[in-house]
Each structure stands twice: as C-alpha cells, then as structure tokens.
Amino acid sequence: MKVAVLTVKHVLEINKTTNGRSILSGFDGRFLQLVLNALNVDYEIVIPADGEWGLKKPDGNWTGLIGIMARREADMTHGSVVITKQRTEVVDFSRPCTVYGETFVIENPGIMISNYAYLYPFDFTTWICSFCVFIIMSVLIFIIANQKVSLHQIFFEMYGNIMKQPLIIYKEFLHWNLLVCLWFGFVFVMTLGYSACLSAFLTVPYQKRYCENISSAFHCDSERDSSCFFVTRGNFIADYLAASEEPYLRIIGDKIISNDWFFDILDSGSGKIRQL
C-alpha cells in the first residue's frame, strides 16, 4: 500500500529503522502508524515533490497530496487535509478524525513607550470629569468665601490638595461641611485610584495595540504597508478568503495570491520562515 503524506516537524515525521522500514512519529504520524499496524499491510511512504496539500490548477489538475490521490499514485493519504467541495470531486474522504482551527499569528508588538504615560491610569472621560469637578468646586469655594480670596489662589490651593497638600479651611466653610466632605472624598478616591493604577502600569509595562481577530489584523495591515499574511503553499485558505462574502477577507485573500505570500510546509521548523 502506498501512503501519501507531508512531513511536518513534530506533526508527522518519518524515521528509518536499521532494516529500512519507515516508522512514523509525531502526533499525526503516530495515529497513522496505528492505522497501518491495524491493517497489517506493507506500506510505502510517498511524499509530494511540491510539498503542498492540494490545490486545483487552472488546467483542472491538482497539486500536492490531492494530486497524488487523483492520479492514483497512492492508495491513501493522511494528515491535515481539509475537506472542501472541490476536493470531494476527485477523492473520497473518511469521517474526520480531527478538527483544526486556523489562527493568525503576528509579531508581538512590544512595550509602548510614551511621554504621556502618566495619563494612562485614567481614560479620557475620567480626566474630563475630574477637571470639571475641580473647576466647579474652585468656583463654588470662591463664591462661598465671598471673594475674599482670589480665584487663582483657590485654584492653586485646590490643586495642591489633589497633590496631597493641606487645604486651608476658611471660616465661611463651616456652614458647608457637606460640600467640604464631598471634596475630600473626591480627592481621596481620585488620588488613591491614580496611585494604584500608576503603580500597576509601572509594574506591568503597557503593551502596544495588537490585532485581536482577522478584522483587526486587516486594519493593522492597512495601516502598515510592510505588513503581509503568509500561509502554507497549496493550502485552501487563500482561495477560501478570496471567495469570501466579507470584503476585508477577499482583500486579504487576493493580496496573498497576488503577492505570492506562501511558504512551504516542508520548511516548518527549519528557521527559513523567520527570514521571510
């Protein structure tokens, strides 16, 4: 029996014994080895020269594993061969034994270094609300003090209180205990929250924005002309994306195909992919 496979490091590897017999390793290889042992047949491993899973060419022929099966150069194949409508027209699939998910892997964006990092503990809305409270309270105190103290002096004193400096209590404030307590409560919560958040930001550096899904990956790519999407050669993903109903997926698929953003599955684990 001839068995067509693609070798991928740690997934499906072929080891030769002293008598020349092929022993399969890796999590896919061990599964296939169990199947072959259960069938109790002599087998020969066939590897496609193009190193592809299988795509339909414009002339109607197939590449990779599917091509070997379509030309009857092998009796069976095993591995991460995804079932698609086109492939079922030329080969018969068994019941799926494994379900795989496709994931976009991106470079770690790294740590964000900014001169405005001291503003990160609070969001924009919190800063605006805090500033409004500061202005309103300063004006109210100016009115309560019967304008005996200049407004800019009150601003400085209120700001100093936020910076944990003592606040001068004028005798006119004695009848406004609730207002003073509210101000002290606001200062306490704001300063404590800011100190805690700032300590957290200093302990764990702020990470740059990263792409959380395919849609955000597309927008990240649009912002950076040097970005690209690499997929394995002979994989169905590029054609699937190019035929998608989602506009951004079609753009990604078309860019992969037009720019030839493919890598050979045989190069997995060799270090060549990092050089792309």
TrEMBL record:
Q: What GO CC annotations are associated with the protein? A: plasma membrane
Q: Which domain of life is it from?
A: Eukaryota
What are the transmembrane regions?
124-145, 173-194
List each copy of the Ionotropic glutamate receptor L-glutamate and glycine-binding domain by range: 10-71
Any keyword Amino-acid biosynthesis?
no
Q: Care to name a GO molecular-function term for this sequence?
A: ligand-gated monoatomic ion channel activity
Record InterPro entries: Glu/Gly-bd, Insect_Ionotropic_Sensory_Rcpt
Membrane topology according to the record: Multi-pass membrane protein
The entry's localization annotation reads: Cell membrane
Q: Recite the UniProt keywords alphabetically.
A: Cell membrane, Glycoprotein, Ion channel, Ion transport, Ligand-gated ion channel, Membrane, Receptor, Transmembrane, Transmembrane helix, Transport
List where this protein forms a coiled coil: none
Q: What is this protein called?
A: Lig_chan-Glu_bd domain-containing protein
**Gene label:** AVEN_197041_1
